[in-house]
Amino acid sequence: MTETRTDSAQTGPAPTPHALAPAPGLPHPALDRWQPLRIGLVDMFYYETEEFWFRDGRLLLRGNNGTGKSKVLALSLPFLLDGDLAARRVEPDGDPKKRMEWNLLLGGEHPHPERLGYTWIEFGRLTDNGTPEFRTLGCGLKAVNGRGIARNWFFVTRQRVGGPGETGLRLVNDARTALTRDRLADALGEHGRLYDAARDYRRAVDEELFGLGEDRYKALVDLLIQLRQPQLSKRPDEAALSRALTEALPPMDQAVVADAADAFRSLDEERDELRAMQDAKDAAARFLRHYRAYARVAARRRARAPRERNSEYERLREELRGAESRREQAQQLVAEAETELTEQRERSLRLGAEKEALRAGPEARSARELEQAAETARRTAGHRDSAAKDAERATGELARVERGLRAAEARSATAATALDTVLGTTRERARSAGIDEHRVEVEGPVHALVAADAPDGAPAAPGGGSDQVRRAAEALADRRERALCHVEELLAALDGAERSRLSAEERLTEAEEQLTDREEQRTHAEQALEQASTGLVAAVRDHLAVCSELRPADPEGLLDRLQDWTGRLDGPNPARAAAEEAVRQAHGVLADSAAQLRVERGRLVRSRDELRAEHDRLREGGQSAPPAPYTRDTAARDGRPGAPLWKLVDFRDGVPEAERGGLEAALEASGLLDAWVAPDGTVEHADTHDALVVPGDPVGGTSLRTALRPAIDPGDPQASAVAQEAVERVLAAIGLGEADGSPGAPAATWVTPTGAFRIGALRGQWTKEHAEYLGEGAREAARRARITQIEAELADLGAQIAELDSDLHRIARRTDALDREFAEFPRDDELSAAHARLAEAQRQFEGMRQRREELAGTAARRAQEARQAQGRLHQEAEDLRLPTDADVLGRLRGALVDYRISLADLWPAVRERRDAEADERERRADAERHRDHAQDLAERAETAREEAAGAAEHFETLRATVGAAVAELQRRLEENDVAQKDCRERQDTARKRHTAAIEDRGRAEGRIEQLQDDIRTAEASRADAIAALRRFAATGLLGVALPDLEAPSVDTEWAARPAVELARAIDAGLAETDDADNAWERVQKRLSEELNTLRDTLSARGHQATAQSMEDGMVVRVVFQGREREVPGLVDDLAREVEERERILSAREREILENHLITEVAGTLQELILAAERQVADMNTELEHRPTSTGMRLRLVWRPSKKNAPPGLEAATARLRQDREAWAPDEREAMGAFLQAQIERVRSGDQSGGTWLEHLTEALDYRSWHEFGVERHRNGEWKSATGPASGGERVLSMSVPLFAAASSHYASAGNPHAPRLITLDEAFAGVDDDARAKCLGLLAKFDLDVVMTSEREWGCYPEVPGLSIAQLSRVDGVPAVLVTRWEWDGHRRTRAEEPAPTLDAAAAEVTATPVPGGDDEQAALWP
Fold this sequence. Notes:
Layout: E1 35-44, E2 47-53, E3 58-62, H1 69-76, H2 79-82, H3 87-90, H4 102-105, E4 114-126, E5 132-144, E6 148-157, E7 160-161, E8 168-169, H5 181-188, E9 192-195, H6 198-210, H7 214-227, H8 238-247, H9 254-359, H10 363-432, H11 438-452, H12 466-546, H13 555-568, H14 574-586, H15 591-619, E10 643-644, H16 645-648, E11 649-651, H17 657-670, E12 676-677, E13 708-710, H18 724-732, E14 735-736, E15 749-751, E16 756-759, E17 762-765, H19 776-811, H20 813-823, H21 829-879, H22 886-1034, H23 1037-1041, H24 1056-1069, H25 1077-1099, E18 1104-1110, E19 1113-1120, E20 1123-1126, H26 1127-1185, E21 1194-1200, H27 1209-1216, H28 1225-1245, H29 1252-1259, H30 1262-1265, E22 1266-1274, E23 1277-1280, H31 1287-1307, E24 1317-1320, H32 1329-1341, E25 1345-1350, E26 1363-1369, E27 1378-1384, E28 1389-1391, H33 1414-1419
Helix pairs in contact: 7-31, 9-22, 9-24, 9-25, 9-26, 9-29, 10-22, 11-12, 12-13, 12-21, 12-22, 14-20, 15-19, 22-24, 26-28, 26-31, 28-29, 31-32
InterPro entries: CHP02680 (IPR013496), P-loop_NTPase (IPR027417)
Keywords: Coiled coil
Region (Disordered): 1-27, 300-396, 610-643, 848-877, 913-940, 1389-1423
C-alpha cells in the first residue's frame, strides 16, 4: 500500500483546479515528476471494482497461473498509454486469439449479452509549491455478444476516481452500473475531455504527461510493449534485444515515401511509353537481324555460282596449258632415251673383255689368302670394341644409379620433415574446428602407418591402411560439417520463422486496426440511422406546421405511419405520398403560364451567370482575347507549343497612344494579331484549321520591329516555347507604314498606324480608339473597361429578372408557395442512405472480423513456429556443442575448411613419405646389382682386346710379303665391276624413260582435245551465274547483307573479272555464314515468322510492312510515316526516336533522383539516422551514469546489420552525417545510386507484384539496415557481451540496455516532469535471486517506475527501496479474484490495508469471494 497522507492541517496555498488537494484515504504523490499512484478496473474480467496501489512507483502482481495477473497488466499498461485494442499490443504474449471483448463477456460466461466497463490509471506529482496535482487516464469499453467491442472511448481528466466533490470522478452510478459514454461526459464536465479516436487520445496523453511528439511517443510505447514480453530475461538473446530496440525506432515518414512512390509510378508510365517504342525498335531490329541473316545466306549462295564457275573455267584453262606443256616434254624425252640406249650397249662390250684378261694372271691366288687374314682381323677387332663399349656403359649406368640413390635418400628426409609439418598444422586446425577426435582417429593411425613401412618397423595393424585412415578423417570432417550445417539451418529456420511471425503480426495488426475502424463505422452508422429516423419525423412535423398551402389530410395519423415506416422502409414513404397527392390537387390552370415565365427567367439567369463568370475571371486577373474566327477549330490550339502574335509582343517605348490603336486595328483586321506563331516560326501540320504566321525575308525598309518588341511570358508554358529570335523574324518580315497611312517601304505585307494594312493581294483598313490586346498595359486597360461594361449589363439583367420575378409572383403566388413548400418537404434520402450505410458497415465488419480471425490463427501459428524454432536451435546446438551465434559459426566453418585443406595436404605428404622410403629401398638394391654387372663386363673386355691384337699382327705380316701385287689386281677388278654395274643401270633407266615418254605423249594429246570442249561450256555457265548475281544485287538484298560492300552498277552488264571479284568479296565478308541447304530452309522459315511479328508491331503504330517474293529472294519494305523505307533505314529512324525519348526520360529520372530521393528521402533518412545515433548516445550516457552493483560496464552499439546491411551503407551513413548543402555533385550522385540500389534490390526480389509504396517502404526502412548489439568492457577493451558469462551477467547484459533505452526516452521528453514507467511480465523468470535483486535494484537506480507480474517473485530485496505487492488467487467455479495486499519498505514485508472505498457507498462491497480462515490462513498459502 502506498503512503497515504491524511493530515488535514497541511499548510500551503489553496489548490487550484489544476492542482487538487489530496482526498482523505487516497494515495498522495511524493515526487515533483509524474508517478503512477494506482490503477483500477470497473466491471472488467472477474472484477466489479478493484484498485491496485503503487508504493514509490512500483507494483508487483503475483500469483499462480490463471489468477489473472497478466490480465490486469494487459488491461492497464501500456494499453492506457497506447489506446490500441489490437491483441498484439494489448496482450503481453501478443496472442491474437485473446480478444478484448473476452475481458468483458468472459467468453460467454457472463450472465448478460452485453457489458460495459472501465480501466484507468492515476498519476500524481508535487508542484513547485508542494501542492499535489493529478491526471487520470481511462478507457471505457462496451462489448456485445456476437459483435465484439461495440464501442470504446477514452478520457483524460484532472479529477480523481473516488475523490470528493467536483474534484472526484465516479465511474459507476447509484445502481452500481458503469457509466455510459454520455454520462461520463457529464461527469467530466470542464475538468477533462472525452476522446473517441485512439490517435487523438494518444496525442492528449503525450501533451499532458510527456511532450515527446507523435513519432517519439509511438516509439516509447513500442519499447514498453517490447519490455513487457513474457519472461524476457529467461533466455537472453541479443537478436531479440536488437529487434526490441529496432522496432522502437521511428519508421520512415509515409508521406515522403508516398510522394516518392507517386513520382516513380509516373515514371513507370513514361517508361511504358518508351518501352512500347523500344518494342517497335526491337522488333524492327530483331527482324533486321533475321532479314540480314536471310540476305547473307542468299548472297553467299548467289555468290557461290560465279566463283565456282570462274574457278572451273580458270582450272580448265590452266589444265590445258599444262597438257600442252606435257606433250612437248614427252616428245623430247623419247629422243633423249633412244640416244642413251645406243651409247650404253657399246660400253658394256668393252668392259667384259677387260675383266676376262685380269682373272687369268698369278696374282689372283695370293689375293685370296690375304683376304682371309683381313677378315679374321676385322672380326676380332669388332669383338674387342663391342666389349669395351659394354663395360663403359655399365660403368656409366652404375654412376647414374648411385646418383639416384642419393636423391632418394634426400627425398626421404624431406618427405619426413614435410609430413611432420603437415601433421602439426592439421592438429592445430582440428583443435580450432573443435574436432577433438583427430589425435586418436587420424594422427595416431598415420604414425602407425608410416612406422609399418620402415625396414625395421612393426607390421601395420589389420585394416590400418591409408584408405581407412583417410576415410576416418573425412568422416570426422563430415560429421562436423553436418553439425554446422544443421545448426546453421536451424538458425536460418529461426530467422525465417521470425520474419514470418513479424509479417503475420503486422498483417494481423493492420486487420485489427481495420476491424476497429469497421466497428466504429458500424456504431456511427447505427447512431446516424437513429438520428436520421428521429430527424425525418421531426422535420416533417415542423414543415407541415409552417406550410400555408401544403395541407395533407390527417397530419397526426400521417406522422404515426411515418414513424413506423422509418424503422422498416417497407414500401414508399407515406408522408411524401400524401404530400404529392395534395400538390396534385392544388395545381391548376396557372401551371402553363408559370412555366413560361420560369423559362424566360431561366434564360436571363443563364445570361447573368455567364456574365458573372466572365466578370469573376476578369476580376481574378484573366484577360480577353481577340474573337476567334468560326473557321478555326476550338481545340486547334490546346496543348500546341507556340502562341498567338498578340501574346508574344508589346509596344516599344515611345510609340504614341494614338498610333497604338491604329496598329492593333490593322493587325486585328488583317488576321495577323491572332495568328499562331510556332516555336521555330514554321508550320508543323497542314490540318491545324488555324491561321499561322510564317516569317518571310525581312522587309527592305522600316519593319514592325520599330514599333513592337518581343514580350514572351515565361510563366506561359506554350508561349515560352517560342524563341525570341522567332518573334523577331516575324516582326522583321512585316513592313511598317507611315503615320499618314502610306505604306512606306515596298513590301508584300505591311500595316500602318492609321489602321491600313496589306497582305499580298488583300488590302484594307480599320480603326480602334485604343489598343486592347497588344502589351500587358493595353490588355489590363481593356480588362478594366470590360469589367465596367459587364457590371452595367449585370445591373440591367438584375432589374429584368426582378421584374420577371415580380410578375411570376403575382401570377402564381399560391402555385409558387405550393411548389416551394413541396420542394422543401423533407426527403428520406438521408434515411435510406443511413439504412444502406448500416447494412454495408455490418457487412464490412463481419467480413473484416472473419479475416481478422483467419489472420489471428496464422499469427498464432507463426508465433508458435518461431518459439519452436528457437527451442530447437538452442537445444540441438547445446547437444552438438556448438554456439548459436552466426559469427562464431562462421569462424568454426572457416576453421573446418582449413582443416579439410590440411587433410588434403596430409594425404599427399603421407603418400610421399611412404613412396620416398620405398624408392630408397629399391634404388639401394638396384645399385648393388649394377656394381656386380659392371665388374663382369670389364673382365670380358680385357679378353677380347688380347684376341684382336693377335689377329691384327697376322694380317699385317702377310700383307707385307704379297700385298703390292694383290692390291693392284684388286683395284683394277673393282674398277671394272663398278663400270659394268653403272652401264647396266644406265641401260635400264633409258629403256624405262623411252616407254614412259611415249605413253605421256599419247595421254597429253587426248586430254588437250577434251579440255578445249570443257572450256567453252564453262565460259557460258560463268556468264549465266554473273547475270544471276547482278539480278540479286538489283533487289537490294546484297546491300542488306553487306552494307559496306561496293558493287558495280546494276544498270549495265557486268564484265567477268569485276563480277568474280565481287563474288569473292561477298564470300570473304560472309565467311562465317552457313549457306547449306538446311540453313537456307531455316532462315526462310524464320523470316516468315518474324515478318508477321514485325507487321503486328508496326501496324499498332500506323506503319505497314510488305514483302515481295521474287526469283532472286524475298524483298521486304516498310511504309513508315507515309514513305516506303528499306528495313535498315526503318531501324535507324526508330533508334533515333527511342534515343530522344530516352533523353527525355533520363531528364525525368534525374528530376526524381534530385527532388525525391536526394532531397526528400535522403533528408528524412538523415534526420532519422542522426536521431537514432543521438538516442544510442543518450542510452549509453544512461548506462555510464548508472553502473551495476557488480561494476559491470555495458554499452549499446548501433551498427550495420550483418545479414541485411546493403553494400555501401557505411559510406552512405558517413555522408548522411554531413550537411546536405555541402555535398559535392559526386556525393549527391553516390547517395542517389545507393538509394536506387536498395529500391532495385527489393523490386527485383518481389515476385508477388507489390506496389511502389510497398516496395519503397521496405527498401527505405533504415531500421532493417542496422542492428543493436551489447558490448561489455573487459580487460581494458570493449567486447561482445554474448560471450561466456554467468546466468546473472547474461540477464543484466540484456535487461540493463532495455532499461537504459526506456530511461533515455523519458530523459528526452519535452515535459521535465514526465513519468518514467515500464512494465514487465513474469519478471526475471528462471534467474537466480542475486541476479533478480540486482535487476530490481537497477530499476531504482534508473529511477524507473514499474508494474510487473510474477508467479514466485516477491521482490523483497535490500536493493528495492519500496514495493507494493498484490497477491491474486482464484477458486475454480467462483467468478471472482481475491486480492491480498503486502508492502515492502526496503527492510521488511508487511500486510497492507485494503484501499478505502473510492466509488460510492453502494459500490463498496467486497468483490472477491471470502476464503475461510481469514487473512492468516490466506497468508500461509505463499511463503
